[in-house]
Amino acid sequence: TLWRRLLVRIAAILGQVVATVVLFPAFAFAASRITGAPFGPTFNDISLLTTPLGLVAALSSFAGSALFVWAAVRWLHKIDPRSLLSFAGRFDWRDMGLGFAAVLAIGAIAVEVTLPFQDYTPNAPWSLWLVWVLPVLLVTLIQVFTEELIFRGYLQSQLAARFASPLICIGGPSLLFGAAHIGNAAAFGSNAWLVLLAPTLVGLIAADITIRTGGIGAATGIHLGNNIIGLLFVAVPGPFGVVSLYLHPIDLADASSVRPLILINLAVIVIGYISYLAVTRGYLRRLQQPSDVFK
Q1: 272: which residues sit within 8 A by CB, 6+ positions away?
Q2: SS3 state at 174
Q3: DSSP assignment, residue 191?
Q4: How far is 283 from 260, CA to CA, in rounded Å?
Q5: CA–CA gap between residue 56 and residue 148 (Å, rounded)
Q6: What gap in Å lies between CA 23 and CA 56, rounded to an integer?
Q7: CA 52/CA 241 separation, integer angstroms
Q8: Tens-level pLDDT at each residue, the chain (295 residues)
Q9: Cα(3)–Cα(206) distance, rounded to whole angstroms?
């Protein structure tokens, strides 16, 4: 029913708020005890996302949304939340690995090819990058898993259970996923619509892959590969670029300079998706049918 779906959405928001309130001071306390730095300035740096630990704390907070949604689905819908992962009730790590490898490989090639032409600014030294690469990879997995659990595992399956039209069960969650990034897009001025197109496109691809595989594993991998490229390899200036190897030396509001970079990102997403389909063509034989588990 409508009130159950509304409560699950509220649970997702509340979970991240609670996790933020708990995790940010916890990370600051641990860091201050380890380094000997005062708690106040350490907490302030984490809260403002000016350090790698701040980035890790921010992405870790998505775990709260996942846990709250998991519990809400069990209590409100009276079903096993593992059904959100796939028809088999489990997360497919093989699917995730294939999706992640496809997008990451294409992204790495794109960075290498464009490196001589884009005049990227060196950012994090290798010594810092190697320390933080695994923690950032782990918390980014938490972030993208949570988003896939909510938008594809929960919302898409609900809509598929009630509407036969793919415009609704695929288009609806994808548009909502894109709209969730409006805050990030605002800094890009007249290019904001293109910036919003990227997460919307990721949403559409993730929705299609979820249908093809019958689970959110592959969609999580594709989503993870896309985000890791922008966090660990080439980032835009700002809090999410604190551990990236390179930064785009651009003014985000400069439409003419930023637009080619956004188009390159869109091309990487599409090519990575096509590569995944090509590699797994003989494997993708399971199709997701409209489920009736959500009533």
Answers
A1: 102, 103, 104, 105, 106, 107, 222, 225, 226
A2: helix
A3: G
A4: 35
A5: 19
A6: 10
A7: 9
A8: 678 888 998 999 999 999 999 999 999 999 999 999 999 999 999 999 999 999 999 999 999 999 999 999 999 989 899 999 998 899 999 999 988 998 898 888 888 887 777 778 899 999 999 999 999 999 999 999 999 999 999 999 888 888 878 788 888 889 988 888 887 777 777 778 888 888 899 899 899 899 888 899 999 999 999 899 999 998 888 888 999 999 987 776 676 777 877 787 788 888 878 887 887 776 555 444 444 333 3
A9: 26
Statement: the pTM of the whole predicted model exceeds 0.85: yes
Q: Is 81 helix (H, G, I), strand (E, B) or coil?
A: helix
For 80, the token pair is: 């096993």
CA atoms of 133 and 274, how far apart (whole Å):
27
Residue 277 tokens, joined: 């389909």
Residue 141 corresponds to which tokens in the numbers above?
């997995």
Angstrom distances, CA of residue 12 to CA of 7, 64, 72:
9, 8, 9
Instruction: Name the residue type at position 47.
Output: S
Q: Strand pairing partners for 246? A: 122, 234
User: Tokens 């979970």 identify what position?
Assistant: 15
Three-state SS annotation for 117-178: HHCCEECCCHHHHHHHHHHHHHHHHHHHHHHHHHHHHHHHHHHHHHCCCHHHHCHHHHHHHH
Q: Give the span between the Cα atoms of 225 and 118, in whole angstroms.
A: 21
- Four-point Cα dihedral 270, 271, 272, 274, nearest 10: 90
Q: 66: which 2 tokens?
A: 């996942």
Q: For residue 243, how many other CB atoms are within 10 A of its CB?
A: 21
Helices and strands: H and E segment counts in the chain: 13, 3
**Identity of the residue numbered 32:** S
User: With contact defined as beta carbons under 8 Å apart, do 276 and 99 qualify?
Assistant: yes
Read off the amino acid at residue 253.
A
